[in-house]
Amino acid sequence: MHFAIAAMLQLLCCVHAYRSGQERYWIFIILCFPVLGCVVYFLMVMLPETGTNRHSRSLLVRLLDKFNPDRYLRKLTEELAIAETNQNHYALANELARLGRYHEAIPHYREALSGIFTHEAPMMLSLAKAEFATQEFAVCQQTLEDLIHFNPDFQSADGHLLFARALAAQEKYDAAEKEFEVLVEYFPGPEARIHYADMLANANRIREANDQYVTVINVAKRSRPQYRKFHRQWIQTANEKLKQSTVR
Question: In the chain, is it the N or the C terminus that has fewer CB atoms within a 10 Å radius of its CB?
């Protein structure tokens, strides 16, 4: 009986792998490890296709990255080799950035930003994020300024926050503070306020920084459980920074 169930699972997984165009090694794994192979295939290939909730997807993606980080990279690299288009460069750059390989992503972003896509706002924003991640803060600032110059109607809270952080990273505190003061009034969630507080702390304005951390905590206390769960990382950061502070 158990053998029949295992054989049926193997058959289902092999058929799915074949029809969905998965790498051939999956069929080898499924056949060589009847139960474990099917479980791994389900977790790494079939489950992501079911559209689970955001938190579950995030956990699953981290798990998949640990076991098979290059699962999409190979396919995207092959697609770029077949057709060197702006979109293929952009897709490969995004996957490299997702894996934290920002230095490799940047050339592909710049290749994507050519022709009719030279000033494509989402692409420019993605490039700026990669430049910030590689600590090219002045270059990041310039990319964002160019983005707004060529796309004056483009709006992005994440882009605005990135611009403020790029200024702060260059110790342009006065200019950064003006941006942060606007950001904390409309940015969804506490992330912008945390970065504002970090900037104040770096500028040795510890009491003002602590006030911002306290605001994050107080807003969280008054908010619904869903808010606290969704922004748990930033709320925890605020609590930790206050505990570490020597100024009250």
Answer: N
